[in-house]
Each structure stands twice: as structure tokens, then as C-alpha cells.
Write a structure and sequence with these properties.
Number of helices: 1
Number of strands: 7
Oligomer: single chain
Strand order of the largest sheet: 5-4-7
Helix content: under 10%
Distance between the termini: 84 Å
Radius of gyration: 24 Å
Number of domains: 1
Order of helices and strands: HEEEEEEE
Shape: elongated
Strand content: 25-35%
Length: about 90
């Protein structure tokens, strides 16, 4: 940190980037200075598409990227086992 620079100024100069989602739309804020870049990590039930390419691992994102999320429609099988004890009814 330069001499004469207070900690508040240093934080503004080096701010981490971040990613957030609102109503299924992805937003990105780029890092400032030597802050950490914004990262996005897809999970199994969502398809992440950045600039037209599907991404399956953690990746840096940018405010300039075109980012889309698609929910994967997976039917999950449901199995129910019911046992009835007739002795309790007598």
C-alpha cells in the first residue's frame, strides 16, 4: 500500500468480483485492481452456457460474457413400499 493511502481507499482499489442470480438471470461484477475475479461453478441440475459454449467446471466470468442457465428436466423415480400388518385390525 502506498504511503498516505488509508485502508478504505485500498479496499476500493482492490475489490473482488462476484456473480449473482436473480429470477434465473446471471449478473457479473468484474474485479477491481488486484481483487479476485468472479467465478461461477455449475452444478448437476443446471446447464451453464457462456458465450454459446456449455461449461462443466468452475470458470472465470466477466461482465462482457453472455451467460445463460438452463434447468435440466430430470424425472426422478419415486418408489413407495407400503406394508400392511393385518394382525392389528383383528
Amino acid at each position: 500500500m502506498k504511503k498516505g493511502t488509508d485502508i478504505g481507499e485500498a479496499i476500493k482499489i482492490n475489490e473482488d468480483g462476484y456473480v449473482w442470480i436473480v429470477d434465473g438471470q446471471v449478473f457479473v461484477k468484474n474485479q477491481i485492481g488486484s481483487g479476485m475475479p468472479p467465478l461461477i461453478n455449475p452444478h448437476g441440475e443446471v446447464r451453464l452456457i457462456i458465450n454459446g459454449m456449455e461449461v462443466n467446471h468452475i470458470v472465470m466470468a466477466s461482465e462482457n460474457d453472455n451467460i445463460e442457465l438452463e434447468a435440466l428436466d430430470e424425472e426422478r423415480g419415486l418408489e413407495v413400499l407400503v406394508e400392511v400388518c393385518t394382525r392389528a385390525w383383528k
